[in-house]
Design brief:
The complex is a heterodimer of chains A (298) and B (227).
Chain A: E1 3-9, H1 18-28, E2 36-42, E3 51-57, H2 64-74, E4 79-84, E5 87-92, H3 96-106, E6 110-116, E7 119-125, H4 128-134, E8 144-150, E9 165-166, E10 171-179, H5 182-191, H6 201-214, H7 219-229, E11 232-240, E12 243-248, E13 257-260, E14 264-268, E15 284-286, E16 294-297
Antiparallel strand pairs in A: 1-8, 1-14, 2-7, 2-8, 3-5, 3-6, 4-5, 9-10, 10-11, 11-12, 12-16, 13-14, 13-15
Helix pairs in contact in A: 5-6, 6-7
Chain B: E1 4-7, H1 13-22, E2 29-33, E3 50-54, E4 69-72, E5 88-91, E6 107-110, E7 123-129, E8 143-148, E9 164-167, E10 178-181, H2 185-198, E11 208-212
Classes of the chains: A alpha+beta (298), B alpha/beta (227).
Chain lengths: 298, 227
């Protein structure tokens, strides 16, 4: 099992209600994924030189004030921190690779969830409603969002194993299903020097697609290679700085429904999660086809 | 007689189903309001009643139906009318995967498209699809008929037994052991009857018959496990 939800708002005035619209979608998929939840919110990109780093502290008592002090003195031009419980989004113009090194050397207890100009990422174990309340998902603003509720089938229940997974910058992926060949994909990528954070099958798909895009494929070309590479069951929903993308495996083993109106595109594993959306009665509803790419631009 | 209404935003599917199983007490019609994609709505009925599901249904709507006429005024999730024995299930929108799976009898009408594996392992049901069916439809279908007014996807009728498929549009590919056969008078009559029962106005002459070559019925050493 697992539940996938995604929402892209077409009108700028709806960006403030992105979280409001999204939370019932996420909570609607609780029965499919009661052990963890997460969401990646994409908003207007920050300045071209800046990057946002979403961080997770395993320790609830993590000293964010002390962390900020050190960060301010380390990064020329300083940084801005937005802390929510044990999550934090750090924005800075410092060199991204240097920030990654500084984090892994100095703060091994901090988990880097995402990097980019648009993406903020929150994920944790617990019921979707609890996770949404903990990090105040309702207040999230932006152009599009990718969410997931997890029922673990093939690796442990930990915050790191929750979805969305990310790779590179401004790219995330959530998965409903299970891959049969994640280890062979992983071995192939590790030979390219790509590092994995977990033993989860979804991470292999996420890193494979990001690797293809870094090698020059556009999203569609990368997804086409994915159809050839991935063996197993999957519905994948992905977010980039300005796109939402959806694919299902050749057997359409895992469900998905799309509702589109003049205001939004909403995606969910089941209609249950779309039923509350304003105007859904008049939305164009369809079931995405097997092995076809669906890409919506923000 | 006014229908009995169940608003599924206020009452549970379990309450509705319990009513349908045990408390009908002469009720002729039941309306399920605000189904909102809930699972297992109106499953396991065994009574000649009308049930209207006033919206979209989730997994297994009207599964294991006997005698009842169930109408989904919207789309249906995976496994609609799965295991039906008799009665009629009518989906006004589209149906997700495995519509009518393993069903022994009755009539399933889908006005829109049906997704993959429509009629998988069916054992006697009649399925009429106004739109198209997805890949692997009628996979291992044992008995009954599938009538497709639109197109069929890949591997239609793979490993067919004695079920018969009628297709009006294009077939992307046939599955192992399925092939097209000439239409007989009996086939034309069957298609006419199914179209009339389902309420579609197509010309029966536009349909083609797909059935089993029966070459998989007996194991053959010469096949070298390549089918």
């Amino acid at each position: 099992m697992c539940g996938i939800v995604g929402l892209l708002v077409k009108k700028p005035e709806l960006r403030d209600s992105l979280g409001e619209m999204m939370v019932p979608m996420l909570v609607g998929m609780t029965e499919r994924g009661p052990d963890s939840a997460g969401m990646a919110v994409f908003s207007e990109p920050v300045r071209a030189k800046n990057r946002k780093f979403s961080l997770y502290a395993g320790d609830l008592g993590f000293d964010w004030a002390g962390f900020e002090k050190t960060a301010q003195s380390t990064f020329k031009g300083g940084c801005v921190l937005a802390v929510k419980v044990n999550h934090c989004v750090l924005e800075t113009a410092a060199d991204a690779a240097a920030v990654r090194r500084w984090l892994s050397d100095g703060y091994p207890g901090l988990h880097l969830l995402s990097v980019g100009r648009s993406i903020d990422l929150y994920k944790d174990t617990g019921l979707p409603a609890e996770v949404a309340a903990r990090y105040d998902f309702r207040s999230m603003r932006g152009t599009h969002v990718v969410g997931h509720t997890r029922m673990a089938t093939e690796s442990a229940v930990t915050p790191a194993h929750a979805h969305p997974y990310t790779a590179g910058e401004d790219f995330c992926l959530v998965h409903n299903g299970s891959l049969s060949n994640p280890h062979s994909i992983r071995r192939k990528l590790e030979l390219q020097g790509i590092h994995f954070d977990t033993d989860n099958d979804t991470e292999a798909a996420c890193r494979f697609l990001e690797w293809r895009m870094r090698e020059g494929d556009d999203l569609e070309a990368a997804l086409q290679r994915g159809f050839e590479e991935f063996d197993g069951f999957y519905t994948f929903l992905m977010g980039t700085q300005n796109e939402l993308a959806l694919v299902r495996d050749a057997f359409a083993c895992k469900p998905a429904v799309v509702a589109e109106t003049d205001d939004y595109v909403a995606i969910a594993t089941e209609f249950r999660s779309l039923a509350h959306l304003p105007g859904v009665d008049h939305a164009e509803l369809f079931e995405p086809k097997a092995q076809q790419m669906y890409v919506w631009r923000a | 007689m006014t229908p009995v209404e169940f608003d599924l935003r206020k009452r549970s599917v379990r309450e509705l189903n319990e009513f349908l199983h045990r408390r009908l007490d002469g009720t002729r019609r039941v309306r399920a309001l605000n189904p909102d994609g809930a699972h297992a709505i109106a499953v396991g009925i065994n009574a000649p009643i009308d049930v209207d599901i006033e919206g979209h249904a989730g997994y297994y709507a009207a599964g294991m139906n006997q005698q009842a006429r169930v109408t989904v005024h919207g789309n249906a999730g995976p496994g609609v009318a799965e295991g039906m024995s008799s009665g009629r299930v009518h989906v006004k929108g589209f149906a997700s995967v495995a519509a009518g799976a393993a069903a022994h009898g009755g009539l399933l009408v889908i006005d829109g498209d049906a997704s993959l594996r429509c009629g998988i392992s069916m054992k006697g049901i009649d399925i009429v699809v106004g739109g198209s069916v997805g890949d692997y439809s009628a996979f291992m279908a044992q008995a009954g008929r599938v009538l497709v007014c639109g197109d069929a996807g890949d591997a239609l009728g793979d490993s067919l037994y004695e079920a018969v498929i009628y297709v009006r549009g294009q077939v992307k590919s046939f599955g192992a052991d399925a092939h097209e056969e000439p239409m007989t008078e009996a086939d034309h009559a069957a298609v006419s009857r199914l179209l009339a029962e389902a309420g579609f106005a197509h010309d029966p002459g536009e349909f083609r018959r797909v059935a089993s070559m029966r070459s998989l019925y007996n194991w053959t050493a010469d096949a070298n496990q390549e089918y």
